[in-house]
Amino acid sequence: MSRTAPAQDAMPTTRGLNFYTADPNLEFVCSTVMDADVLERARPFLLAIGPTITHVGRVGLAKSMKIAVNQALAVQMLAFSESVLLAEKAGIARERAVEVVLKSVVASPMVKYRAPFVLGMPAEALFDVDMIQKDMRLALDLAHATGVALPSVALTHELLTAAKGLGLAKYDFAILFDLLAHLSNLPPSKKL
Question: Is 1 a member of any domain?
Fold first, then answer.
């Protein structure tokens, strides 16, 4: 997966350009930027490695789409963490709060995948703080270039910087939970 600015990949080619993107541990997604006829010839091969193909348009747009999707990962983790910690501080057991949120309408695939991390953080990061912050910086740069306000991304990026300041950078970006737990005078996730 490329993690460079969208404009860097804006060079047209004669055969088209593919970007294969996904959260490292969720469903594979293929966003393509290629001529329609090239896409149709490639379709059987692309479907062999992932269930969906979305043609997003001209060269560079698939990368912009990837940035737009990835910035939401950490923002969702922040919101999930807030929900669980608010419930816990109100007297609900952390495990029960996680269970309830996972049965609610906010249980996105990302939340379902990372929710167990607040109960036991894996020692090995699947998508560490530096990686998600790079994607968030790309999103903030794209937002600045296009005139879109991303206040939740900016805040989440700063909270991840605070997590790094606490020595938590080696963990998955779900470590946002531990930062908020620290600020709320609650125990962090168990480290596995």
Answer: no
